[in-house]
Write a structure and sequence with these properties.
Strands 2-1-3-4-5-6 form a six-stranded parallel sheet, sandwiched between helices. A six-stranded parallel sheet has the order 9-8-7-10-11-12, with helices on both faces. The chain is built from 13 helices and twelve strands. The chain has 345 residues and is of the alpha/beta class. Helix 6 links the parallel strand 7 and strand 8.
Length: 345
């Protein structure tokens, strides 16, 4: 391993968008700079240092602590000001909303800021570098044989629609359930799979959705698979025919890009996250109004009308991501920020 120049903390056990970002970027960045992750819930193949060892790293070298959560900014401040570690503090924000007073205070203590969209940058109240997410087009790619992959994963046949993310109202799960109730009876070969964790707080919400599906007579065509391993999620993208991201609120929202890189067209909301920058409406998928189950159902019905057009949209989507959203560009831009901090000793 190269000398450690950057530490990317992941101070959360469960899989989240931030954790996914660390998992995506480090395998590429490790060939550009001496970077390690620290914290739980990360694959064994990532360069890693135990958090307990961070305070004992030599202070002769300046390092970057790249936080993506409040807890990680706070830990960085503790390491620098209490334990006197030789660190530059960097924070990446995807939030497109006004920050709490505590978060604003943490942000004010950072040495540099990255925002994942111009909208996120507008809420930081400090200078930042806008670096949009990309995807690994080698990891996310179309399937050679979808049916073989579905058999391996235990997924249904026919037309398979996916929606990945935690099961909660923020992710618009109920909107897709309502759209499914309106559309699926006219498309008997179509089914929907949800993947994502349901915390105790939202178990009643999931039961409510399942009850609606039961009453509509399509409970056996909409599957809640729970939280799945990362490698399985990557394969599941390839097995889909259509992806839907009906979120009401989102920081950046990477799942449509991952789906499109896998050769799968996507439906998302044009005024949520960075979806409008990702999807070419009518070409790589559809953009619909936020929090509107009827508009979502209309888009879903249109996409399902012609399987040949659906497949063609998937091919266009793959090309679109390869041309505009490769992860190598994101990784290089972030490493440039690291180097600028390391060169300001």
């Amino acid at each position: 391993m190269q000398d450690i120049e950057v530490i990317a903390p992941n101070l959360k056990h469960s899989l989240s968008g931030v954790t996914t970002t660390v998992i995506r970027l480090l395998p590429i960045q490790k060939d550009m700079i001496g970077i390690v992750a620290t914290g739980p819930g990360l694959p064994d193949n990532l360069p890693h240092i135990r958090l307990i060892k961070v305070p004992f790293l030599s202070n002769r070298r300046l390092r970057v602590w790249h936080a993506r959560r409040n807890t990680e900014m706070l830990m960085g401040l503790f390491l620098r000001h209490i334990l006197r570690r030789n660190l530059k503090l960097l924070f990446t924000s995807a939030a497109q909303r006004d920050h709490s007073g505590f978060t604003k205070w943490l942000i004010s203590k950072m040495d540099a800021l990255i925002a994942t969209t111009p909208q996120a940058a507008s809420f930081l109240q400090h200078p930042s570098t806008v670096i949009m997410h990309g995807v690994n087009t080698k990891l996310f790619h179309p399937a050679e044989d979808k049916q073989v992959l579905r058999d391996k994963l235990g997924l249904p046949g026919g037309t398979v629609i996916g929606c990945f993310g935690r099961i909660r109202p923020q992710k618009g799960v109920d909107l897709l359930v309502d759209a499914a109730i309106a559309v699926l009876p006219s498309h008997p070969d179509a089914s929907i799979i949800f993947t994502g964790r349901t915390t105790a707080e939202f178990e009643a919400f999931q039961r409510e959705q399942e009850q609606k599906l039961q009453e509509a007579g399509i409970r056996d065509r909409v599957h809640f698979l729970g939280e799945r391993p990362w490698d399985e999620i990557v394969e599941t993208y390839r097995a889909l025919d259509l992806f839907v991201a009906p979120a009401r609120h989102e920081g950046f929202g990477l799942t449509p890009l991952e789906a499109m890189a896998s050769g799968v067209p996507a439906i998302a909301c044009h005024d949520v996250g960075a979806f409008s920058a990702q999807i070419k409406d009518g070409e790589t998928g559809r953009l619909v109004e936020k929090d509107n189950a009827t508009a979502l159902a209309d888009a879903l019905a249109q996409m399902l009308e012609d399987p040949a057009k659906l497949a063609a949209a998937g091919r266009v989507a793959r090309d679109h991501v390869e041309q505009n959203f490769r992860i190598e560009g994101e990784a290089e831009a972030i490493v440039k920020v690291y180097r600028s901090l390391l060169n300001t000793a």
